[in-house]
Write a structure and sequence with these properties.
NADH Oxidase, 4 strands, four-stranded antiparallel beta sheet, binds flavin mononucleotide, 218 residues, single chain
């Protein structure tokens, strides 16, 4: 759905550029204004329609699609282009189910939910992101990296959920240490958060947002 949306936008842009080589329009609108008024904006549409997904179909996201998502991630703006992140992609069920067993042992109630499959909101693919605590903007870099991944994924019909809870567990539970070690982050990097990815199996409604937090300062 979303990829065809991009194709449509590309056709419209090409069409729009061609039209802009023609003489000025009668109603004095610029071509850009005319195109913007008539057509939805793919980026805004993707941002506004995205929701956190917590139910997924079992198959993992193909590595080819993940490559596109990761490429979009690392093209995020980042302080001084230091790229102060490290990224680990896990789609191996042994890893995901193994760490989930450790989680279940510590949180037996979690597994009582009949829809519970794993500690990453049941997703088949998880991206772990580590930051450099020695650089004061590293967490910002990692956040922007993640949002690029989340939005590019959604534009291709892939759902996601940004996750802090599981990482808090992995960073603090001694029984989870072998899994943290397996992620193999470099010395000096610390696991910050993870993002679950998968083919959505639900269409949650938007949660309300408050505009009261926004103020223009004159
Ligand atoms: C830093 C961060 C940590 C989050 N941690 C969790 C989490 O541990 N579990 C979870 O289900 N969702 C988690 N979320 C997802 C939020 O609950 C979700 O983004 C928020 O409720 C707004 O809903 P929406 O994403 O559908 O717009 C997290 C989101 C962020 C940005």
């Amino acid at each position: 759905m979303h990829s065809s949306f991009f194709k449509t936008l590309a056709i419209l842009c090409i069409g729009g550029l061609t039209a802009c080589t023609q003489p000025a329009q009668q109603d004095n609108k610029t071509c850009q204004e005319a195109v913007q008024e008539e057509q939805p904006n793919a980026v805004i549409e993707t941002i506004m329609s995205r929701r956190s997904i917590r139910k997924y179909k079992p198959e993992p996201v193909s590595r080819e699609t993940m490559e596109t998502i990761l490429e979009c991630g690392i093209n995020a703006p980042n302080g001084m282009n230091k790229q102060s992140w490290e990224i680990r992609v896990v789609d191996n069920p042994d890893f995901i189910n193994g760490i989930t067993e450790v989680y279940k042992k510590a949180n037996p109630k979690a597994a009582e939910d009949p829809s519970f499959k794993n500690m990453f909101r049941n997703a088949p693919t998880v991206v772990f992101i580590a930051h450099d605590p020695g650089y004061d903007c590293s967490q910002i870099d990692c956040g922007l990296l993640g949002e690029n991944m989340i939005l590019s994924a959604w534009s291709m019909g892939i759902g996601s959920c940004c996750l802090g809870g599981p990482v808090r567990f992995i960073n603090t539970n001694p029984d989870a240490a072998p899994y943290l070690q397996k992620l193999g982050f470099s010395e000096g990097y610390r696991l910050l958060y993870c993002i679950a990815f998968g083919h959505p199996d639900e269409t949650p409604a938007a949660k309300p947002r408050s505009k009261e937090k926004i103020k223009y300062v004159e």
